[in-house]
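RECORD TYPE: protein structure
NAME: Group 1 glycosyl transferase
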Amino acid sequence: MKVLNLVTTPRPFFNQQCDILRENGIEITTLQVPGRETQDQSRSLLDFVRFYPHVLDECDSSYDIVHANFGLTAPFALLQPHRPVVLTLWGTDLMGKYGQISRVSANFCDEVILPSSVMSEGLGVDHKIVPFGVDKSKFKPINKYQARKEIGWENEENILLFPYTPSREVKNYKLAEDIVASLSNDATIKQISDVSYNKMPLYMNASDAILITSKRESGPMVVKEAALCNVPVVSTDVGFTKDVLCDVSNSTVSDDKQKLVESLDFILSSNASSDGREILVDEVSVEKMGDRLINIYKSLM
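PREDICTED:
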């Protein structure tokens, strides 16, 4: 089977998707929209105009599937002559300012995939749910003090990981600061935004807990990744956090600030870990994601 992927900016979960499909014998070619060399940059209309001829040049009858990844690539998948077209929406492309492009495009695709049922209410067409997978060989428990030694953190410090750029308003860093100020235990928030993906397991395992205070999320993937590391997660009720963590010990999902404070105080006082890996390792694996995608592809051929 031969698949042409269209994508804006490849994210780790997209790269893992491609890797697991290749491991299952799928031939993958990926075309990326030009522009945006860094996260601080944005693409121009000209970047998307330049993308279209590349799509037309690459597309031919040898491809069994054209897979648009992220809503802004969907029009280009639809404006080439080969079918079927699969569209995977990531979250911000449905919930953000360009959501209308995704919703309109979805009506003309042969199959639409969402990574979370939380997004379903924002889409008015039939779709499949295929959660993004996590590499269980990468995200796994590591001794906390060994991890801290490798990244240079103090052993005796209580550390809460805030895995976002604090300046992003939707991540609600002010609430994180308020929660920490209300703790009975002393704790430090470590903010990370420019750490390489390969080092994220170290930073997670070096932390006593992951603190998420977002106002809105389609995921977030960090919840699954931390759970596979057996690191407690304390989060506002956003995205799929409640679904993922409902059976995981020492992890709390609530919009009640006091409950988040009490949960963190317990975790810090007891040096608690979670049992997320035991609960979720098979359900959130990249292997399961790959099987689901292949079944969808086969159903369209």
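COMMENT: The chain has a mean pLDDT of 95.
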